[in-house]
Amino acid sequence: MRILITNDDGISAPGLAVLHDIATAVAGDDGEVWTVAPAFEQSGVGHCINYVKPSMISQLGPRRFALEGAPADCVLAGLGDLVDGPVDLVLSGVNRGNNAGENTVYSGTIGAAMEAALQGIRGIALSQFYGPDNVHLDNPFEAAAEHGADCVRRLWADAPWGGDAYKLFYNVNFPPCPAQRVRGLAAVAQGYRGDARMSVAPQTAPSGRKYLWIKGSAQAEATQPGTDVKANMDGWVSVTPMRCDLTDAAALDDLRIAFPKYSD
Question: Which domains does the chain show, CATH number per domain?
Answer without folding.
Answer: 2-194+223-258 (3.40.1210.10)
